[in-house]
């Protein structure tokens, strides 16, 4: 609720009812300012009776018959002594060059503010209203109307004389007239009427609802929203009327226009004035309230409401109670509401006070947000409208927000806002850092300090690092990782870390951070020593990034103790920097590590480390037997005798078998399988691989007295050896496990072989027949013989020049042609073979 009070030097102030404002969370829509300067002096001696608003100036009428022209600030620019009694109405045309004035003593004056032309008339009754044609300054529209007991229209004719005509009479005193374009709206004791000056027709009559109210005490308020929309307020009733064109087919004797009431509703209080605001209405109410101590009503402060009209009701948008001077003495008829169409300005006129209501701008919106401590919204609004705000500064609002957050104890949020608010202002940044230091919250602001192109003095960053080093090693380590090293004096921080390490030499966090500081300072050797000591995962990244391979030649064992896989991969990827020989030399005393390195080297390239293959035999045998046999199979540089010796010493049967077979001693290999492994399946598989009849014989001979081996042979040799040979050698009476099943399998295998052979035979016969038929078709084809063909023996044309004579030609399937007489006889075949080239088909 707004409370208008003069306060000091403020030119534009919003006055609110404190008791209601404290509970309200809705932002006011309007702000209020008392019209002062010359107006203050005028109203101290006189009282305002009416006022008209133009975009350029104001015209104020008083109870003592004076008219003052004022600028927008309320300063008097002109004064007219019109009468000795109350000025009832002042009317201005759209240009602001002509003014019409009427008074309670019946005087009417229409004159130009910048010319001497005019109209002066005294009537025998009070003239309540006067209205100029909106285009009065143009010669074709020298018209105005007056309202007393009659509605009179004055027009200046071509003789420069004023012609009067009565537009309406007989319904009491006329209290209000509003002229818009060609439409004149007026109110009398009965209702509101609209007259079309163009067609000279009255087009409507809107009756007033509450006839019990005295028209002189509760006058009608009229306001044109646009050229076709009239807003009528009377008592507690509001109607919105729209002038529309009538369909030509419906005219007959009716006016060409008609009025449709699109909205009609009742209000809680009496209406003293109306004005449009976009699609909403600004209403000035006269309020009467019941006293708590007396039964009678008393006059309360007038209210200025913004409402949203609906077809049969309205929705209140905002409501402000105005404390105008002497409001206790005023009646409903003492208030008026005027508005400026060029700007959203609303003037509340009372006898002793004039208040200007304005739509709140972005500055006012920000003021309200700050007052409500909604700093986040205020800052956002200022950033969005920074080009339009005049009284506020984005950075100052931001600083206020930071101060508010600090006062609340939300230090992290305050520090986060510093990034956005302080921007590139180094002085503000440093002030904030010292403030956070004073309140013991350097940690909160540390992560938001500038660290890019924009930087503070190194001392600021060092101060924060020292603070973390005292209380939070982890936070200190985080800052060292996140901050570029050029922000602070690296040597000073290194010294500080070393001082702390003297008290806690095993602290991993400090050691890791010190290594990072050494890395930035390009003292990589020291950083590497710390990383290796800590077995830190970043050691390999450090070596790669800064090419420290020359520094790790004597630290290979340390690296492999930390992570064998990564270390070996790094060494193999950089053989050009650390040779294989150097690595083998360093790992000589750690054979288990040497094996890991040589094994990976062999996997990458079977030939690269060939000179170490003999050594690898022992390493595989000692540390990695599962990979020994694959190594022996893949290596072409491994000394077989040495390998056999190692395997035999350790009784590695599978590896010994492989080596014996590779060296050609297959019988001994098979013997080891049978005797030591006792694995008939592996023996059979070995015999299959070698495909040697003697091995099969040895295998049968060894197995003939071992029933389980015989079963294995019967099940597997059917496709390699004739099973009859084995069966004949089985002793009578020997019990053989699963003999029946084995014999059935042999028969099944035999049947399968027979079927395969028959199938193959059928395929061969079918293919042979197909090829024979193809050859026959080819040989049965005709062969073209013409004069271009020659005899392959005499090289003459194959056809005679005289085709009438009989001749004989022999043509072979290879397309060689001969005269019959040129073919060799049995006695000259040898000559023919020597002298004539004949293909194999002859």
Mean pLDDT: 82
Main sheet strand line-up: 1-30-29-28
Strand content: 15-25%
Overall 3D form = elongated
Number of strands: 32
Major sheet attributes: 4 strands, antiparallel
Percent helix: 25-40%
The whole-angstrom Rg is: 59 Å
User: Spans with pLDDT under 50 lasting ≥5 residues?
Assistant: 1-23, 827-837
Structure description:
InterPro entries: Beta-prop_Vps41, Clathrin_H-chain/VPS_repeat, TPR-like_helical_dom_sf, Vps41, Vps41/Vps8, WD40/YVTN_repeat-like_dom_sf, WD40_repeat_dom_sf, Znf_RING_Vps41. The chain is an alpha+beta fold. It is built from 29 helices and 32 strands. The strands form nine sheets. A four-stranded antiparallel sheet has the order 1-30-29-28, covered by helices on one side. α23 runs antiparallel to α24. The longest helix is centred in the last third of the chain and has 42 residues, at 739-780. It starts with 17 loop residues before the first helix and ends in a 7-residue tail after the last helix.
Concise account of the structure shown:
The protein has about 850 residues and is an alpha+beta fold. It contains 29 helices and 32 strands. Strands 1-30-29-28 form a four-stranded antiparallel sheet, covered by helices on one side.
Summarize this structure as a short list of keywords or feature phrases.
4-stranded antiparallel beta sheet; alpha+beta; 842 residues; single chain; elongated
List the helices and strands and how they pair.
Layout: H1 18-21, E1 30-34, H2 38-45, E2 48-53, E3 58-62, E4 66-70, E5 76-81, E6 87-92, E7 98-103, E8 107-112, E9 118-122, E10 129-132, E11 143-147, E12 150-156, E13 162-169, E14 176-180, E15 183-187, E16 191-196, E17 201-207, E18 221-224, E19 229-234, E20 237-245, E21 257-266, E22 270-277, E23 280-286, E24 288-290, E25 297-299, E26 303-309, E27 314-321, E28 336-340, E29 345-350, E30 353-359, H3 362-371, H4 375-384, H5 394-408, H6 411-422, H7 426-438, H8 442-446, H9 458-471, H10 473-482, H11 490-503, H12 508-520, H13 524-534, H14 539-546, H15 556-562, H16 564-573, H17 580-586, H18 591-604, H19 613-623, H20 628-634, H21 640-649, H22 653-662, H23 666-677, H24 680-690, H25 693-703, H26 707-716, H27 723-729, H28 739-780, E31 809-811, E32 817-819, H29 829-835
Antiparallel strand pairs: 1-30, 2-3, 3-4, 4-5, 6-7, 7-8, 8-9, 10-11, 11-12, 12-13, 14-15, 15-16, 16-17, 18-19, 19-20, 20-21, 22-23, 23-26, 24-25, 26-27, 28-29, 29-30, 31-32
């Amino acid at each position: 609720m707004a409370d208008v009070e003069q306060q000091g030097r403020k030119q534009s102030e919003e006055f609110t009812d404190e008791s209601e404002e404290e509970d309200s969370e809705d932002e006011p829509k309007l702000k209020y300012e008392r019209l002062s300067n010359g107006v203050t002096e005028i109203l101290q001696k006189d009282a305002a009776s009416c006022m008209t608003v133009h975009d350029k100036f104001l015209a104020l009428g008083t109870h003592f018959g004076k008219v003052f022209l004022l600028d927008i600030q309320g300063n008097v620019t002109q004064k007219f002594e019109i009468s000795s009694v109350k000025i009832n109405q002042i009317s201005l045309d759209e240009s602001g060059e002509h003014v019409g004035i009427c008074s309670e003593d019946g005087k009417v004056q229409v004159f130009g503010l910048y010319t001497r032309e005019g109209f002066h008339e005294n009537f025998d009754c009070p003239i309540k209203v006067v209205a100029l044609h909106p285009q009065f300054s143009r010669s074709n529209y020298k018209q105005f109307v007056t309202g007393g007991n009659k509605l009179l229209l004055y027009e200046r004719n071509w003789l420069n004389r004023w012609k009067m005509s009565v537009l309406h009479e007989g319904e009491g005193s006329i209290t209000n007239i509003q002229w818009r374009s060609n439409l004149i709206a007026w109110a009398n004791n009965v209702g509101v009427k609209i007259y079309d000056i163009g067609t000279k027709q009255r087009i409507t009559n809107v009756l007033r609802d509450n006839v019990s109210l005295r028209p002189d005490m509760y006058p009608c308020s009229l306001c044109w929203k646009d050229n076709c929309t009239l807003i009528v307020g009377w008592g507690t009733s509001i109607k919105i009327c729209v002038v529309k064109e009538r369909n030509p087919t419906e005219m007959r004797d009716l006016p060409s226009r008609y009025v449709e009431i699109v909205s009609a509703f009742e209000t809680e209080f009496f209406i003293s004035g109306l004005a449009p605001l976009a699609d909403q209405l600004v209403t000035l109410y006269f309020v009467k309230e019941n006293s708590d101590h007396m039964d009678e009503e008393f006059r309360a402060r007038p209210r200025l409401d913004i409402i949203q009209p609906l077809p049969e009701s309205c929705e209140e948008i905002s409501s402000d109670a105005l404390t105008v001077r002497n409001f206790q003495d005023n009646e409903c008829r003492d208030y008026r509401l005027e508005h400026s169409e060029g700007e959203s300005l609303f003037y509340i006129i009372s006898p002793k006070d004039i208040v200007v209501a304005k739509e709140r701008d972005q500055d006012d919106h920000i003021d309200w947000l700050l007052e409500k401590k909604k700093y986040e919204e205020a800052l956002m609004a200022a950033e969005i409208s920074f080009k339009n705000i005049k009284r506020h500064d984005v950075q100052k609002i931001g600083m206020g927000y930071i101060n508010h957050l600090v006062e609340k104890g939300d230090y992290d949020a305050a520090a986060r806002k510093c990034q956005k608010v302080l921007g590139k202002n180094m002085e503000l940044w440093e002030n904030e850092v010292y403030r956070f230091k004073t309140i013991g919250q350097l940690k909160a602001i540390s992560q938001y300090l500038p660290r890019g192109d924009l930087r503070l003095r190194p001392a600021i960053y060092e101060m924060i690092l020292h603070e973390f080093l005292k209380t939070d090693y982890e936070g200190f380590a985080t800052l060292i990782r996140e901050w570029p090293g050029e922000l602070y004096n690296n040597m000073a921080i290194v010294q500080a870390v070393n001082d702390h390490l003297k008290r806690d030499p095993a602290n991993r966090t400090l050691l890791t951070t010190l290594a990072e500081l050494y890395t930035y300072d390009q003292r990589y050797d020291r950083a590497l020593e710390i990383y290796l000591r800590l077995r830190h995962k970043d050691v390999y990244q450090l070596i790669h990034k800064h090419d420290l391979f020359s520094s790790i030649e004597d630290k290979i064992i340390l690296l492999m103790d930390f992570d064998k896989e990564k270390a070996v991969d790094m060494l193999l990827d950089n053989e050009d920097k650390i040779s294989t020989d150097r690595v083998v030399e360093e790992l000589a005393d750690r054979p288990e590590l040497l094996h890991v390195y040589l094994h990976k080297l062999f996997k990458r390239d079977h030939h690269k480390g060939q000179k170490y293959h003999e050594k690898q035999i022992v390493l595989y045998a000692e540390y990695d037997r599962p990979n020994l046999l694959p190594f022996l199979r893949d290596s072409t540089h491994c000394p077989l005798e040495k390998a056999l010796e190692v395997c035999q010493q350790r009784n590695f049967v599978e590896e010994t078998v492989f080596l014996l077979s590779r060296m050609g001693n297959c019988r001994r290999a098979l013997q080891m399988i049978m005797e030591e492994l006792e694995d008939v399946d592996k023996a059979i598989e070995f015999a299959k691989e070698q495909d040697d009849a003697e091995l099969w014989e040895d295998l049968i001979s060894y197995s003939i007295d071992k029933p389980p081996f015989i079963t294995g042979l019967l099940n597997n040799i059917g496709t390699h050896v004739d099973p009859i040979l084995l069966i004949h050698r089985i002793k009578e009476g020997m019990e053989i496990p699963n003999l029946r099943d084995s014999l059935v399998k042999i028969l099944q295998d035999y049947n399968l072989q027979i079927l395969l052979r028959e199938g193959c035979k059928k395929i061969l016969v079918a293919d042979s027949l197909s090829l024979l038929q193809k050859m026959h078709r080819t040989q049965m084809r005709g062969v073209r013989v013409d004069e271009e063909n020659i005899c392959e023996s005499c090289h003459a044309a194959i056809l005679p020049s005289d085709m009438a004579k009989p001749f004989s030609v022999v043509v072979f399937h290879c397309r060689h042609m001969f005269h019959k007489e040129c073919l060799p006889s049995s006695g000259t075949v040898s000559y023919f073979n020597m002298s004539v080239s004949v293909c194999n088909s002859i």
